[in-house]
Amino acid sequence: MHLATLALFFTSVANVMAATNEPCIGSGGRAGVCITTSACSSAGGVTISGACPADPANVKCCTKATCANGSAGNCRWQSDCGGTSASGLCPGPAQMKCCSSAATGFGGYSAPSFPAVGACKAVAVNGAKALVAAWPGRVRQIYCTRDCSCPGTSDHCCGKAIDFMCSDGGGVPTMSGRQLAEWAMNNRAKLNLKYVIWGQRIWNPSVDGVKSWPSWRSMKDRGDVTQNHWDHVHVSFK
Length: 238
What we know:
single chain; 2 domains; 6-stranded antiparallel sheet; 4-stranded antiparallel sheet; 5 helices; disordered N terminus; signal; ARB-07466-like C-terminal domain-containing protein
């Protein structure tokens, strides 16, 4: 499993427009979950304001720095644990568990299969290969086309978008996509980037300056982890 220090990724507190029971970045830059303050307190967690602005006032970003799963026990999304995960010790939904390791566990996946050039356009296939090469082991699966007519309502309809699945499964939250999304932004010319979405935020080179993901434009709550892009990074190409 690809391991890195926790500080490498959680460097700042993000004001993310999150949905209840979905990820946020909370106290100390730790992985958190947007839940009611009462639920957080009863589970032994602490909340910060401003990290779940799309939710009601009593819903805040909850974190729990220590939990009883080894000396380094801490609460995080199971997909991001570099050790073993124990249930029933952390605030939030079942996928927020007590991790035995202080190191992150982002990735560790076998190399994904790439679509053939055809319905999936060369710019998307080449972009997918470039991102996967830059982050080996971090992308579990790749999706390009959808069953829709071009131009449709998505760049997937024209084969000019890639979904980089970067958690343990569809609908499973992770915090790992931030690094992939920011890499796409920083390599926009190489990728012929149109826009990138991660964690309910979007960045478009035509309208946005280069900035860290917490400062990207927020998007509305679409109702679940996948539609809010907490299990994959969406990259559209020109």
